[in-house]
Amino acid sequence: MDNIPAPKVILLLSGKRKCGKDFLADALLKRLGTDEAQIIRISEPIKRHWADWKGLNLSELLGDGTYKERYRKEMIEWSDARRQEDYGVFCRAACTTIDRGICIVSDVRRKTDVRFFQETYGPERIRTVRIEASEAVRAERGWQFQSGIDDVQSECDLDNYGAWDLVLANEHSNDVDGLLAALQRLVEQQ
């Protein structure tokens, strides 16, 4: 891609809602340091457009609260229509902010997201991670099944993806150091 720096490692995090993707991404960033690493979110350009178009609070849409959930289904439908025209449109927009050697993408949701990063940066730079948590644990974290959200492509497209470099079970808060160590080892692999 023109004018987009190529980081040495791109860590693609995937998982169901409330599995802990953002929590682990934030904790890993603290461990690696912001001089070396950064987090980008594919959903950020979607939410930015939605906030501008509807006059909504962008920081609330980017957060993890009920505000975002009110608009989630509409945002999914709108973004799916844009992806039909150009599957990499939101990945490309998110990548314009890359300026570190390690890039953590905290919200990979589709096979086309993985494809975009592999085609754009080369598979040798890409590390894919699936974060899993049981429905019971996700429910403790505030998840409730919603038809039209939890049963559509944005939640389910990577369910049968088999090429993960690492699969992590994020079930218990006392496992965080072990999960972060595994992620850090994956990032440091040559």
Automatic annotation (TrEMBL):
Main location: cytoplasm
SUPFAM superfamilies in UniProt: P-loop containing nucleoside triphosphate hydrolases (SSF52540)
Binding, ATP: 16-22, 141
UniProt superkingdom: Eukaryota
Binding site for substrate: 170
Location relative to the cell: Cytoplasm, Cytosol
First-tier enzyme category under EC: transferase
GO MF annotations, alphabetized: ATP binding; phosphomevalonate kinase activity
Pathway where it operates: Isoprenoid biosynthesis; isopentenyl diphosphate biosynthesis via mevalonate pathway; isopentenyl diphosphate from (R)-mevalonate: step 2/3
EC numbers on record: 2.7.4.2
Gene Ontology biological process terms, A to Z: cholesterol biosynthetic process; isopentenyl diphosphate biosynthetic process, mevalonate pathway
Keywords: ATP-binding, Cholesterol biosynthesis, Cholesterol metabolism, Cytoplasm, Kinase, Lipid biosynthesis, Lipid metabolism, Nucleotide-binding, Steroid biosynthesis, Steroid metabolism, Sterol biosynthesis, Sterol metabolism, Transferase
UniProt xrefs under InterPro entries: P-loop_NTPase, Pmev_kin_anim
GO cellular component labels: cytosol
NCBIfam families assigned: Pmev_kin_anim
Protein's name according to its UniProt entry: Phosphomevalonate kinase
Species name: Anopheles minimus
